User: Which sequence fits this backbone?
């Protein structure tokens, strides 16, 4: 059955290997140049005292390839799910060849070998791709200091996405029994699952940290500006809430009110911050006085964030979520094919 | 008599509809069994139940003493050629043979290769580009080279032209003559079966209407014609399968084990075609109680 699977999937395997090889060659040709550029610009920039210039030199280089690579890493699991996963059972049912296959091998053995081998191949291929892209991007990533922005395209998680996408495709095919609708369903399901985990799972799967800092936004401009209050610029700020003395949330990102603009005015009762209160003791609206008023009224920012130290814990957790789901779905497929597809 | 297929109260339901119902039947070993019935009678359902592609909703089925599809040993005993003879369109003929070798312990490589040689097909040709006749022969080769004890074929010649049909059935006969393998073959055309079958099962509207040795069936059915008569006036051992009347004349197709003594009748033997057609067009009549020992159910 293993040899038969290889015989049947050889074309797909060759296409996959070919694509990987092309990407590997492109990265091998351009990667060392990036490393060299990093070493000659950013690595020694602190000593020369001109880091912003060095950084922009590096980031201006080869930006388009970086974009392409990120898209590829995002898309490969989807392609695996659509073109390896969905047709796996659906095409056999559609063309009637299941009657040829499942009267020679027990369908359980057929499923276990196919799911196992192709699932493994999906994971290895995506793992290699992610490894290459992670290596290639590392000089740029180090300079960008936003590792959470490229969380989905680096490290371990693409492997989990690939395994999940593959099995999701198989499951859709088993249930729907037709290739094209199964592909469409798998695509939709995959996108929804990724969004759900990214928005409601990833921020909280490892307990985020919380820190309260003084609000400096209102006094600085009177309008909103992103706060860089978290301890490390590489941290991922999940939420940044403005709270008043009672701890009630009164706005976001250091400003007050839903619009993001804080109205500060000077009246008979001194400086007034709309929605918070006034400071009768302060009678001129200088930035310094506004800041004093903000502090007097105890307006602060509460930051919820994932520190850079949680990065790998989050990678492992998300990998576990998707791999676990893939395993559960595989079990479901086996059961369904054995018990219900009769 | 050992049975290759034995069913008891076997039924298969698709949703609310029964594809096969209340089928109790014993198919003996060493025969070429023809399973006839109109489209939608449940032939495919019965055969799929026999190879384990379907699981029964009611009753039980035993094939060569085991449960269909129950493990590799059971699968190895039964060769199956499915309807429309499915093959992998993208795989070459040679790869199909390799598939057979990979998936089957008892694979007879020599047999498979010599059969493909005889077909005059380039082994490198993709199965998707074969003609219907060639594809059917490939499917038969794949089933036969597994060296099964029982060969089940579901309408293997339905989509073939007359020449390919004859060649296919000829191959099948050669295999039977050489290996003595038991065969169950379904068709809605009696002409196909007449040439190869020595045992017949008629399946109508998901019920087995009649079954038995072809020679016995032919020896126990007669066409009687003579002056007009009421069927009730016939002797009790003569069972009317079909009747037709004109003003003066009556024609009956009757089933009886005993000689027909009435001199008023013009007695003629029936062909298999007549017989099957009579049962196919008069399915209700066969619902009468029948004498045991004829292998008839319902």
Assistant:
């Amino acid at each position: 059955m293993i040899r038969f699977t290889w015989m049947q999937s050889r074309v797909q395997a060759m296409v996959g290997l070919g694509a990987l090889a092309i990407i590997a060659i492109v990265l091998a040709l351009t990667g060392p140049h990036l490393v060299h550029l990093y070493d000659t610009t950013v690595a020694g920039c602190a000593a020369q005292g001109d880091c912003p210039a060095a950084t922009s030199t590096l980031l201006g280089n080869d930006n388009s390839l970086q974009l392409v690579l990120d898209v590829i890493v995002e898309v490969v699991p989807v392609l695996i799910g659509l073109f390896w996963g969905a047709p796996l059972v659906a095409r056999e049912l559609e063309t009637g060849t299941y009657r040829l296959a499942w009267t020679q091998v027990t369908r359980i053995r057929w499923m276990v070998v196919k799911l196992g081998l192709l699932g493994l191949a999906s994971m290895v291929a995506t793992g290699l791709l992610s490894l290459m892209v992670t290596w290639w991007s590392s000089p740029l990533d180090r300079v960008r200091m936003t590792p959470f922005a490229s969380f989905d395209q680096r490290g371990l998680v693409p492997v989990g996405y690939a395994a999940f996408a593959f099995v999701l495709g198989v499951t859709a095919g088993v249930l729907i029994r037709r290739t094209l609708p199964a592909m469409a369903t798998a695509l939709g399901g995959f996108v929804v699952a990724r969004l759900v985990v990214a928005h409601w799972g990833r921020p909280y799967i490892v307990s985020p940290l919380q820190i309260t800092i003084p609000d400096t936004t209102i006094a600085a401009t009177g309008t909103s500006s992103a706060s860089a209050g978290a301890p490390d610029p590489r941290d991922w700020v999940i939420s940044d809430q403005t709270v008043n003395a009672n701890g009630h949330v009164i706005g976001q990102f250091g400003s007050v009110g839903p619009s993001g603009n804080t109205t500060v005015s000077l009246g008979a009762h001194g400086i007034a911050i709309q929605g918070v209160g006034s400071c009768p003791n302060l009678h001129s609206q200088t930035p310094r006085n506004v800041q004093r008023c903000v502090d007097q009224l105890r307006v602060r920012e509460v930051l919820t964030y994932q520190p850079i130290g949680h990065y790998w814990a989050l990678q492992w957790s998300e990998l576990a979520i998707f791999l676990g789901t893939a395993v559960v779905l595989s079990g479901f497929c086996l059961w369904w094919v054995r018990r219900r597809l009769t | 008599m050992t049975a290759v297929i034995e069913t008891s109260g076997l039924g298969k339901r698709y949703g609310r509809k029964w594809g096969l119902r209340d089928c109790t039947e014993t198919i003996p070993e060493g025969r070429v069994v023809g399973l006839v019935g109109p489209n939608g009678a449940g032939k495919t359902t019965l055969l799929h139940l026999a190879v384990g592609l379907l699981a029964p909703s009611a009753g039980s089925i035993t094939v060569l003493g085991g449960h269909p599809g129950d493990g590799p040993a059971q699968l190895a005993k039964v060769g199956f050629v499915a309807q429309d003879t499915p093959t992998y369109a993208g795989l070459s003929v040679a790869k199909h043979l390799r598939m057979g070798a990979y998936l089957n312990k008892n694979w007879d490589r020599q047999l498979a290769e010599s059969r493909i040689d005889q077909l005059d097909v380039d082994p490198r040709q993709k199965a998707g580009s074969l003609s219907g006749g060639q594809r059917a022969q490939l499917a038969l080769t794949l089933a036969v080279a597994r060296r099964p004890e029982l060969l089940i074929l579901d309408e293997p010649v339905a989509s073939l032209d007359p020449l390919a049909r004859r060649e296919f059935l000829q191959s099948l006969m050669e295999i039977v003559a050489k290996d003595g393998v038991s065969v169950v073959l379904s068709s809605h055309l009696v002409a196909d079966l007449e040439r190869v079958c020595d045992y017949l099962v008629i399946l109508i509207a998901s019920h087995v209407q009649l079954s038995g040795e072809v020679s016995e069936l032919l020896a126990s059915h007669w066409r009687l014609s003579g002056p007009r008569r009421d069927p009730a006036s016939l002797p009790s051992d003569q069972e009317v399968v079909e009747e037709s009347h004109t003003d003066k004349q009556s024609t009956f197709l009757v089933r009886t084990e005993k000689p027909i003594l009435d001199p008023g009748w013009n007695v003629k033997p029936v062909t298999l075609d007549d017989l099957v057609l009579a049962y196919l067009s008069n399915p209700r009549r066969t619902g009468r109680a029948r004498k045991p020992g004829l292998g008839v159910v319902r």
Notes: Residues 2-40 of chain A form the longest helix (39 residues). Confidence is low (pLDDT under 50) at residues 222-227 of chain A. Residues 216-298 of chain A form one domain. The radius of gyration of chain A is 27 Å.
